[in-house]
Amino acid sequence: MDNVSVTALSFTEYVMSGQRGRINIVSEQRGMYLAEDPRVCGFYNPIRSAMRRAANSTEPLLELKQAVLDANRNGQPRAFEEIADGFLPWLEKMRATGVPVDATVWRSGDLTLKVRPHLGLRRKDGTSYAVLVHTKEAPLTREAANVGLRILQHTVEDNLPGAVPMVLDARRGKAYQMAARTNLAKLDVLIAAEAVGYVTHWRMSA
């Protein structure tokens, strides 16, 4: 059977959706990925682009305000405003500038994850971060953040060598890094099991 390919962020959203919501979220994601019109899956792309520009701008607020003003799809203005309200204070505290990141893939069984951090950031001390950005309304859970972080740990040398993996809940301005006490072996088992579940749900929703 064909390999299933989605983004790392889509997979983390599946992990956090709970047992009852997983079939629905996979059906929704499947429809977006297989849609003939690529705009169907691009709801958050304008604000993510604005976030990248903001990281290199002397006026980051203006970049995000413009994205809100340009929003023309149902629900976008409110969503973009909430993201800007959470992201801007966080970016100011980070005191970092944007750097390019590369895309790669990571596989678990029949699931291929496309991994391209939404942000690459570097502080004045040289510390760099490869950041996946969660933009949706539901708060990001620690479990889902750990899944995203572990995937980044596997790929970060291809994305942004030497960077610290980070997952950001943009609306709440809350960033996650992997805790030192995390049992990575158990996390790998969890990811492998969730990957099997995702592929099963994907194929059943065909």
Note down, in words, how this protein is organized.
The chain contains seven helices and eight strands; from the N terminus they run βαααααβββββαββα. It is of the alpha/beta class and 206 residues long. It has one domain. The chain starts with a strand and ends with a helix. The mean pLDDT is 91.
Which features would summarize this protein structure in a list?
50% helix, 206 residues, 3-stranded mixed β-sheet, alpha/beta, 5-stranded mixed β-sheet
Task: Furnish the topology, listing elements before pairings.
Elements: E1 4-7, H1 8-15, H2 18-33, H3 45-54, H4 60-70, H5 76-94, E2 96-98, E3 104-108, E4 111-115, E5 119-123, E6 128-134, H6 142-159, E7 164-169, E8 174-176, H7 184-204
Parallel strand pairs: 1-4, 6-7
Antiparallel strand pairs: 2-5, 3-4, 5-6, 7-8
